[in-house]
Design brief:
This protein is mostly helical and about 120 residues long. Helices cover about 55% and strands about 10% of the residues. A hairpin with a 2-residue loop joins β3 and β4.
């Protein structure tokens, strides 16, 4: 089950995390490689997210993707959720900072997170 938006669209953590990784990579293909999943899986989750939100989050071109105005507005929220999830996982698991970057809740999308949070209260 995902997070509910007004109007009834479920937004999943996987979709949010894939969206953040695509934005960081500037390419669906590069994001998929960094995540260790098939490009088609990343593309599909992005499509589901965009349809559910009723907005294109990226404009697509031969040289990659660019955030749309809606994507720019959505990105800080998606990053914050991603960071909070990573902090919660570290807190509950009791992992050290070195272990935190190696941990994963769902290996395909948290394995390459690479971002650290100094404490669980920091927000994006």
């Amino acid at each position: 089950m995902g997070l509910m938006r007004p109007g009834g669209c479920d937004v999943t953590l996987k979709q949010l995390l894939y969206f953040v990784r695509i934005a960081e990579a500037g390419s669906i293909n590069q994001a998929a490689k960094r995540l260790g999943v098939a490009q088609s899986a990343v593309t599909r989750q992005l499509q589901i997210l965009e349809v559910g939100l009723g907005s294109a989050l990226f404009s697509r071109g031969k040289s990659g993707v660019q955030l749309t105005e809606q994507g720019v507005a959505f990105l800080p929220y998606a990053r914050e959720v991603s960071q909070l999830l990573e902090a919660a996982v570290r807190e509950v698991s009791g992992a050290s900072r070195a272990e935190a970057t190696q941990m994963s809740v769902d290996k395909p999308f948290l394995r390459s997170a690479g971002r650290t949070i100094s404490d669980g209260r920091q927000h994006g």
